[in-house]
Amino acid sequence: MDTGSQPQKKKKTPIWKFRKPPYQLGVDGFTQKDLKKDYDNWVDAKLYLPVSYELVYMKLEKKTIPGWWNGRVWEGLRLRDGDKVLYWKNKE
Asked: Which of 28, 45, 47, 91 could pair with 23 as two cysteines, CB 3.0-4.6 Å apart?
């Protein structure tokens, strides 16, 4: 008879271990500190996505515009069909 030995609990594996990029902040266990930014604080949109409905600047091929990520697609008043978001950064 065991005297107080309990089965060991398995460590939970973070969700992002099973998913492929892009990872979304707040959903996949990432925070602002975990982001890899360049010297101007731009974040690669292929790797990370902002929190849903957080206002950000989006860098397109030819211009930079304000917009947001709605959880499925990028949205913005000046964003046209076919525009590809390359980088984003928080609107500060």
From this structure: 28
Q: Do the domain assignments include residue 69? A: yes
47-88 confidence digits (pLDDT tens): 999 999 999 999 999 999 999 999 899 999 999 999 999 999
| Structural domain total, the chain | 1
User: Could you tell me if residue 3 is inside a domain?
Assistant: no
Euclidean distance between the first and final Cα of the chain, in Å?
Answer: 62
* Structural domain includes residue 80: yes
Dump the DSSP string for the chain. Answer: --SS--PPPPPPPPGGGTS-SPEEBTTSSB-GGG--B-TT--EETTTEEPPTT--EEEE-SS-EEEEEE-SSSEE-TT--TT----EEEE--
- Do the Cβ atoms of 23 and 16 come closer than 8 Å? yes
